[in-house]
């Protein structure tokens, strides 16, 4: 039975890759660029279908994908080559991949909200004897800020309590139109093994389309902010290697989500779609972000970069990424993240 969940997880993650590459593919076509290959997966070819001018491939390892365009890696004297296009056209093609992942995340979060409703940062219940009650938080209070950070979703609140790790947090809640400052210190709940203050959110059970889409936007924005905080923690050396996972961890987590049901899996896929977009806009050669960085230099300076040199830089970047990917996979296998 677990094999079915793993296959479901792989299929779900493949949808994110297809969405990303479809963004590149669509804008390439709109800009008159010839697409030679549309690949799902990496490594040896399993099978493919040859279209009018594009070969559609499925490869052995479901850890990525790519769209191969004419003239992407070197200068080609052809009106339909990527290298012949203006910088702004190239930028639109490259940026379309991450943008598609953001759009996909918003839509998936909206669907999840429509199916099950969603928690909002308005207090529905306060546990007796917990820090929230002691601090004076009441049912109906709307959580507006924590430590001067705006709270738009319940997940924003949850994340700030998690990050505090038992340190006092400064909250501003709205009560009858009035802003009230409250200081509260989270405590560790031994049963759930997480820090809490003892409150429960209100649930918007049957949101309309506008409310669901609003949740999708807010949730995507919240994850962006949380990820920025995570990168900040990395630079501050507050994150250990045990907090990192790669493709194997993604499949394990996704399989657990698939086992829990289609809605949890969709929520996880939406989350991963945001992470995929963020990863791809990192300004590193071979990633979309590397291309975007170089194209912005061209647009700002008005000077064209050497296509062959750009192709070589991207090739080296691709090799480095593959080496990192192999190391991460080995780490995933030798020292897996505890998901319990």
UniProtKB/TrEMBL annotation:
Residue intervals passing through the bilayer: 6-27, 91-115, 312-330
Major enzyme class: hydrolase
Record-annotated PDZ domain positions: 105-177
GO terms assigned for molecular function: metallopeptidase activity
Keywords from the named record: Hydrolase, Membrane, Metal-binding, Metalloprotease, Protease, Transmembrane, Transmembrane helix, Zinc
Record flagged with keyword Cell inner membrane: no
Annotated Pfam families: Peptidase_M50
Principal location: membrane
Superkingdom classification of source: Bacteria
EC number of this enzyme: 3.4.24.-
Topological category with respect to the lipid bilayer: Multi-pass membrane protein
InterPro entries, sorted: PDZ, PDZ_sf, Pept_M50_Zn, Peptidase_M50
Cofactor (UniProt): Zn(2+)
Localization, UniProt: Membrane
Family to which this protein belongs: Belongs to the peptidase M50B family.
Protein name per UniProt: Zinc metalloprotease
Organism the protein comes from: Clostridium omnivorum
């Amino acid at each position: 039975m677990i094999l079915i969940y793993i296959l479901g997880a792989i299929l779900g993650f493949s949808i994110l890759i297809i969405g990303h590459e479809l963004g590149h593919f669509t804008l390439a076509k709109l800009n008159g660029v010839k697409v030679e290959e549309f690949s799902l997966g990496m490594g040896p070819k399993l099978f493919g279908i040859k279209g009018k001018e594009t070969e559609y491939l499925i490869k052995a390892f479901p850890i990525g994908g790519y769209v191969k365009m004419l003239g992407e890696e070197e200068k080609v004297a052809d009106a339909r080559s990527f290298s012949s296009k203006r910088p702004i056209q190239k930028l639109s093609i490259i940026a379309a991949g991450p943008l598609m992942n953001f759009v996909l995340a918003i839509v998936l979060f909206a669907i999840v909200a429509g199916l099950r409703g969603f928690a909002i940062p308005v207090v529905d219940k306060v546990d007796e004897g917990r820090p929230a009650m002691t601090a004076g938080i009441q049912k109906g209070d709307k959580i507006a800020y924590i430590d001067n950070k705006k709270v738009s979703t319940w997940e924003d609140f949850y994340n700030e309590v998690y990050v505090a790790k038992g340190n006092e947090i400064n909250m501003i809640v709205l009560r009858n139109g009035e802003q009230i400052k409250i200081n509260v210190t989270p405590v560790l709940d031994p049963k759930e093994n997480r820090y809490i203050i003892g409150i429960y959110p209100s649930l918007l059970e049957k949101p309309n389309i506008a409310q669901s889409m609003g949740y999708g936007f807010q949730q995507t924005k919240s994850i962006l902010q949380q990820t920025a905080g995570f990168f900040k923690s990395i630079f501050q050396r507050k994150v250990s290697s045990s907090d990192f996972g790669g493709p194997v961890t993604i499949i394990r987590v996704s399989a657990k989500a698939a086992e829990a049901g289609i809605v949890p899996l969709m929520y996880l896929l939406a989350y991963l779609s945001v992470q995929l977009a963020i990863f791809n806009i990192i300004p590193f050669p071979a990633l979309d972000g590397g291309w975007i960085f170089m194209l912005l230099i061209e647009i700002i300076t008005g000077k064209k970069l050497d296509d062959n040199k750009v192709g070589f830089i991207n090739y080296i970047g691709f090799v480095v990424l593959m080496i990192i990917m192999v190391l991460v996979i080995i780490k995933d296998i030798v020292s897996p993240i505890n998901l319990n």
